[in-house]
Amino acid sequence: MKMLRFRSPSLPSLDQEIQCTVRLLDDSEVSCSIQRETKGQFLLDHVCNHYNLLERDYFGIRYVDPEKQRHWLDPSKPVVKQMKSQQPYTMCFRVKFYPQEPIKIKEELTRYLLYLQIKRDIYHGRLLCPFADAAYLGACIVQAELGDHDAEEHPEDYISDFKLFPKQTIKLERRIMEIHRNDMRGLTSPMAELNLLQRAHALDTYGVDPHPCKDFTGATAFLGFTARGFVVFQGNKRIHLLKWADVNKLKFEGKTFYVIGLQREKKLVLTFHTSTPAACKHLWKCGVENQAFYKCAKSSQIKTVSSSNIIFKGCRFRYSGRVAKEVIEASSKIQREQPQVNRAGFCQSKSFSSLSHKQLIMNMEPLLPAEQKENAADNGLVALKDCVHLSPLKPSISTAGTTEVAAATAAAVAPGSTTGPGHTDHSPGATSADPGATAEHSSGPKDQPMGEKNGEPRHEADKRKKEDEKDEAGRRERKQEEEDEDESGGPLTISDLVYSPCASMLPTPVGDDDSEGGAYGSSVASMFQSPARILRDLHADPDMQQELRAEREREASMEALRVSMRPSAVSPRWGQMRACCRSAAKLVAVVSGLLLLLLPFMLLLLESDLDVAFLHDIRQTPEFQQFHYDYYCPMRRWLLCELDMLLEAVVGD
């Protein structure tokens, strides 16, 4: 007897290694090999071990599927089952949960990685802020990367060589240079980075990974999840803020995303529409993870969430990591020496140059306002042409020792540190700078104004001082408005510019295809053409005009036919009568169907041998006795006779 042999996978297929590349926040890369059953936690641990990073719960790994939809790598699932793209795999290491209070971060390395993420957010337009805050953040970046201003090494317009903001004007560059020259002197790189984090975390767009969508009116909006709660941006305003304590449920169905919560003790249901079901599911999972991370006090309180209220319908998901309070407690228990931080030079992000070589995410619609779509597309193309890979003008300042970092953390150096006699920035949370910097500034003549000390006329110093006072007054006014608006969660103006993070609509680059010209030359021009220009070119085509004219004629004839088929007299009343007739017909059909189902079932129960009280009482009634002998028994005999005849015809005997 021949035995059956089941085919088993060969050993080489089980041991096959898959190459993975993870792009870090400074655009360097880390590669490793994984097996088919390797889970996402292995990759995350590999990158964190590369950095020697302990506070790793704030970070995650992001990838892009073949449909250009972004996803966060699930640490609890195998990498191969999540990645649908071809090998080798390419992913990106990014900040997933932004700390609510950066000052509570224990290690300088974690603060530096968060600083790199904030710098990317500023550059791509995700962190939108007023002019004064933008200038201060830019000055902190320049101080952290270049150090103190040096007139011999830095030319007069040295900021113009660096691309810090998506819309970087000459006025903004001049203001950045003023703050860098006058207010940042003496700050080390860790202190400048901490100043940036302290100023950035107070902004409304801090930690927002914008999800483009449409509201119930069809207007474009950007949804985000922060440490404070769920936010909605439209134009230059924050139109909704629901704190996590007021968010009851997040769910989605198809392309529709629902946020159910409370506002002013009343139930609130917000509805938004995404471009694809995959984008809606990604939005829902991000919301569930952020709500669990920031709202729960312990990871044991996290529950599995369903995307729908109907049983056996929708998706089920559960966040499997630690929550914010547990991460802060674990950070406070770190007792090791501060790890070395290898700061990269001042270079351009690859994400910007990659826009000319990668295709747009096709499942996200163009989300700029109608009047700005054409101009924004043209500006994006000009920015690509002017973009150059930047090199540092000055070597980066060496990493400060652990003593300086501890002093910076304890002092909580905030934006606007004291820089000299007669010039103190009274911004919120401001403290004095380090003693060395104060001594250096106070070494000059005490009666000499700061403007003259730097070789500037007195009237220039007075003018700058008035601008500082004006910015400070505006900042206090905005802070008061934010406190008032946060209580109600209503609209709040966040900037003079429209919140349009175009670069965030593109996938994180997954390759280094830097070739230009040829096929890419035509694709770049077509990719950055505005929809208005494309429609105008199509309408200018004679063939297209003829087709449009024929289409209009067909639509007009169909509309005339529909109008002619409608009843001419008392059409509203006729429509109401038809609606009533349809409702009555539906009711009759439902009742008839129920009777056809219930009567045979009741008859079977009555004619059965079930000894139930109410059935026994019905059987004893004269009406049932008459029905049983006059109708049921003859009908049963007739059915049995017919069945016997049918069996004889089929079987034969």
How does this model look, in words?
- The structure is a single chain.
- The protein is an alpha+beta fold and 653 residues long.
- It has helices at residues 11-14, 40-51, 79-82, 108-123, 131-146, 170-182, 189-200, 277-295, 324-332, 350-353, 373-386, 402-411, 435-441, 450-453, 458-488, 519-527, 531-540, 542-565, 571-607, 613-619, 622-651; strands at residues 18-23, 29-34, 59-64, 70-72, 89-95, 211-215, 220-225, 229-234, 237-243, 247-253, 256-263, 266-273, 305-306, 316-317, 492-493.
- Strands 10-11-12-6-7-8-9-15 form an eight-stranded antiparallel β-sheet.
- α4 (108-123) crosses α7 (189-200), α5 crosses α6 and α5 packs antiparallel against α7 (189-200).
- The longest helix is centred in the last third of the chain and has 37 residues, at 571-607.
- The chain starts with 10 loop residues before the first helix and ends with a helix.
- Residues 1-12, 351-456 and 503-532 have low confidence and may be disordered.
Oligomeric state, counting identical vs distinct chains: single chain
Strand order, largest beta sheet: 10-11-12-6-7-8-9-15
Helix content: 40-55%
State which percent range the strand residues make up.
5-15%
- What is the typical, i.e. mean, pLDDT? 74
Q: Could you tell me the number of beta strands? A: 15
User: Major sheet: size, sense and barrel closure?
Assistant: 8 strands, antiparallel
Q: Compute the gyration radius: what is it?
A: 35 Å
Question: Given the C-alpha coordinates, what overall shape results?
Answer: elongated
| Count of discrete alpha- or pi-helical segments spanning 4 or more residues | 21
Q: Name the structural class.
A: alpha+beta
Report how far apart the termini are.
45 Å
Low-confidence stretches: 1-12, 351-456, 503-532
